[in-house]
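User: Structure please.
Assistant: Input sequence and predicted structure:
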Amino acid sequence: MTTLDVDAVKTFVTIADLRSFTRAAETLGTTQGAISVKLKRLESQVGQRLIERTPRLVRLSAQGAAFLAPARELLAAHDRAVAGLSPARPRRFSLGIATHVGGAEVPTLLARLHAHDPALTIEVRLDDSRDLLTAFYRGDIDAAIIRREDDGRDGEMLTTDHYGWFATPDFVHRAGEPLRLAASSPSCGVLNIATRALAAAGTPLTESFLGCGSFAVADAVAAGLATSVFSCRLAPAGTIEVSRRFGLPALPPSEIVLLSALSDARSRAALKTIVSAFREHHRLPADRTTRTIPAEVLEM
């Protein structure tokens, strides 16, 4: 029976998440040479090539992709076994997620956190990026996943998000008329970017449903009552991107970052779990300099 080296499995998962031997070495506090040796040891144990590496690309092989989920389960089981050797102490972890950021990955993220540390009580707060930033610096939350504004705020970059103008296919807007815009809050950073872009383009605006909350905004847009700005992956079902149809200005992409001031080992491990789960759903685009939303999400 094959016996796997847990440390080597951890090295493989880290390389798979970061798609970089250099970053994996930095994360694990070791050298590229050391993680290469551990990966080769694991590949020898399983008799399969798990990572394909070229001078410009690091990616999973077909066997590596199939092994990734079982590898995570092995590491989670190992961590639970080690934790079981000492009395579990109740812990709390408060995480803020910006409303323009959180999507389908949130259940996976929470499930991964629970599997990593069953004794962890997870508190999740959904709010605008600016409000979460204030809460983070006040110490009200332990970590936050938010949009990076033009203020150059610190944080570990997770991915780049793209935004567009969305409405139902039958939504009507005539040139020269005020644009009916649904927005969740006057302080919303995405709304501010959108209104500045409209002002620069000379497009008049009438704000509808202002302050009704992010879910109500999505409902208003899905009902055909207004248009609004959404991440291209979070637009309401049944809506389309309408910037070309109505001559609306292109919106810049936004970096999503993780903020945390935690330093103890268990909390840092939880943060790595968050980063891993998030990046699985948000792979960085090949061209990080793109300043408009991808062409495939635009209405044809």
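Residues 15 and 24 are 5 Å apart (CA to CA).
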